[in-house]
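Suppose you are handed a protein chain with no further information: no name, no annotation, nothing but its sequence. What can you learn? This example shows the usual starting point.
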Amino acid sequence: MQTQVRNEKMLLAGEWVYTDKTFGVYDPQNNHLIARVPLSTTRDMLQAIEEAEQAFQTNKGWPTHERIKVLYGVVDYMEKHKELFARTIATEGSKTITEARGEVKRAMQTITISAEEARRLKGETINFDQNEGSENKIGYYYRFPIGVVGAITPFNDPLNLVAHKVGPAIAAGNAIVVKPASVTPLSALLLADAFSAAGLPKGMLSVITGSGRELGETMVTHPSIKMVSFTGGLNAGEKVAEQAGVKQVGMELGSNSPTIVMKDCDLKDAIESSVSGSFGAAGQNCIGVQRIYVEKEVYDDFVEAFVSHTNRLNVGNKLDDNTDMGPMIEEKEAIRVENWVDEAVEAGAKALTGGKRDGAFYHPTVLVDVPDGVTLAKEEIFGPVVLIYPVNSLEEAVQRSNDVDYGLHAGIFTKNLDHAFYAIEHLECGGVMVNDTSDYRIDEMPFGGVKNSGLGREGVRFSVEAMTEPKVVAIKL
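A reasonable first move is to predict its three-dimensional structure. Written in structure tokens, the prediction is:
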């Protein structure tokens, strides 16, 4: 039975509106149309930005306690409707219902932390008398909101990654305009509904749905947008950086994340964690495990057990509680992964399991003997494929881990502190997870990478700081 198609409105400067034109949102599992959503125009984006600027000017004195009240109100709304949020995530995207429920829980935590960080947004006093001749001066600095934030979000965490932009923006006292991924806009609209219900001042949030090609440049280049917060692919990120000009830009652009397995580790834990980190959300995760470097003494045992665990994964209906992995976001993405795997196999790689596609489903795939020059050895796969390599030493594992143009997260399994700290010091990335995979993250920690993995850091406190500016006050007595 086909799901009833919903006709959705978007939040434009505090008003829920339809547009003359719409586009379809489809369940990637069966390609059923589940909703029709406004297809915005450049004029809609301009209106959202201009009214966001007006709302920000009107609410410049917005008290901290009122921001906190709104954010906690959003959490209350989400608690009351958490199954609706979860089913929305699972239906429009790739996540299983179990994974979607986990994302709702994390998004609630993200908004909660945002409320807490609003309370902690402080400056500090400055000792001006450290400078000769300034003995008669006192002062301090404080942080003020930058104005209007423009946010562009991806499909793979359609609720929590929106929360990571909207929560900090509101905590800091900014207005924000969000352009969610066109394939998964429903979760962002549902979060906007929560903010409306919580009493957010009109115009402080807009969620504008439609084509990135149509709307993105207008947002990024508009002079009222004082910061662009972008999560997505490298090519789009480079274009955003080129267009933005002189304004704050924060970017998370993905990775090709490594995990190192030393012979002295808890092998059972390393295997179970690495399987989960490789295939969660159908591998469509910027910190998901893509490359595993295993010390040769335990390589054969690791690979055998890893493949066995992978084969036990239940691939199927996203809404079934027993399903471990659903489809990729679109069939064209599954075809892309299929082509990359076929290229690697033709070049000499061996698929120990998987390597099969069924529509948008691509089965969990384990590759060994992968040549260095093939696409999936260097680029972000963003699919359920993992590459396993034997290494002779930690130094070799670290060197090979660094031999890509990305550096977001890395993991290492070891019981040896010297090994752990060698990896911490020498891995070129934004985060090193010891006795866990690259896939570990909590929403309070600084999150971002080096090289082509992006600019700046997310994580609520760090986003709030990026969305504010320090102002120095010096008083001559």
